[in-house]
Amino acid sequence: MLVLGRKPGEYVMIGDNIKVKVVKSLSGDLRLAIDAPREIVITRGEVWEG
């Protein structure tokens, strides 16, 4: 597992076509914005674990 520190507005690329960006909400929470091709399945952890 790779652990990175990122600030709001910064991002990481996974391969050539998946961008994961850290964004900050109005309430101060940090969120992830994921830009990936439609054929890539993205599932939240709580759903994955059942």
TrEMBL record:
Alphabetized UniProt keyword annotations: Bacterial flagellum biogenesis, Cytoplasm, Repressor, RNA-binding, Translation regulation
Cross-referenced InterPro entries: CsrA, CsrA_sf
GO cellular component: cytosol
The organism's taxonomic lineage, starting at the top: Bacteria, Bacillati, Bacillota, Clostridia, Eubacteriales
GO biological process, one term: mRNA catabolic process
One of the record's GO molecular function terms: mRNA 5'-UTR binding
SUPFAM superfamilies in the cross-refs: CsrA-like
One of the Pfam families matching this protein, by short name: CsrA
Residue ranges of coiled coil: none
Identification of the protein by name: Translational regulator CsrA
PANTHER family: CARBON STORAGE REGULATOR
Gene3D superfamilies: Translational regulator CsrA (2.60.40.4380)
